[in-house]
Amino acid sequence: MQTGTCVVTGAAGFVGSHLTDCLLSFGGRVIGIDNLKLGKPANLVQAVHNPNFNFLEIDVNDYAGCLRRLKQEVKGGEFAMVWHLAANSDIRAGGEDPEVDLRDTFMTTFNTLRLMKTLGIRRLAFASSSAIYGNYPGTLTEDTGPLLPISNYGAMKLASEALISAALETFLERAWIFRFPNVVGSRATHGVIYDLVKKLQANARELEVLGDGCQNKPYLHVSELIAAMIFIFQDAANSLNYFNIGTDSSSTTVKYIAEAVVREAAPQAKIRYTGGPKGWPGDVPMFNYSIEKLRRLGWVPRLTSNEAVDRAVKEIVKETPG
Ligand SMILES: NC(=O)c1ccc[n+]([C@@H]2O[C@H](COP(=O)([O-])OP(=O)(O)OC[C@H]3O[C@@H](n4cnc5c(N)ncnc54)[C@H](O)[C@@H]3O)[C@@H](O)[C@H]2O)c1
To answer: Are 293 and 141 within 8 A, CB to CB?
Structure first.
């Protein structure tokens, strides 16, 4: 695949680092941006050895700083596109302090678009989320509505999608919006598996699990997510391309995840559920994603949600230092 020189925001994060490695494997040049607030330099251990990679430790909302550093990186060529993944990934923290998602989930999109306009970059791929659908009771297709998110994070992702749509009327030529489900796998910086592994490391006798364990959602392995993103990028050629990415109708309960983590990390631990249907305010306890549009384009996942979780639990336990 021809990728040219790309900018990846959120490059030191969980998904951003895997995407960076994938884009570099195609032979393109990648400029990674991250403020390292949630991301980790260790996630870029493979990328930093590649001469086609450069990392800018900077906040996307530092517009003047990003503009100056990106202009230095152009080196006579042009940026082919931006993959915008920088965001707050701590949904609970965003519920407690609305500034968090305004700044890191919405303003990062606003400033990414502003930078792209100034630098004449006309293609954008964006990491959106199932959180834009809120607590919708039925199957979620891309055209489900009304869209009423129940978290500040979901609201700011939805507002970001709206901003991208509006930019297509002015300077953007093409955009790809990927609505991720829950993504799991190595290099996780957050998420239910990561949280449970950390808790067990702190107390190997008892594992506290938020909610009643019945929350039931689709989990996709990060390797499949990246494959789907690349597939959509190559094959969807509308001006605005928006897709749910998910598992093939399977989903996994929190109880299944807790038991898998205990089995792998501390088999003697007892699981204690805090009770109630939700893990925290803003948590969508259940959703049912349709990936029919993606299937029609020609991509299907190989792993079920439980298989993705099993693989991710092994990866995360192995790489998480106690
Ligand atoms: N992992 C999932 O399950 C999931 C689900 C839905 C959507 N997403 C979206 O995918 C993207 C990647 O998520 P992730 O799971 O890799 O999370 P992550 O936290 O590991 O990655 C996000 C990265 O963005 C960086 N960042 C945040 N604000 C920044 C700012 N102002 N300037 C520069 N860098 C900033 C963080 O330091 C972090 O490295 C995000 O946009 C997220 O909302 C993830």
So the answer is: yes
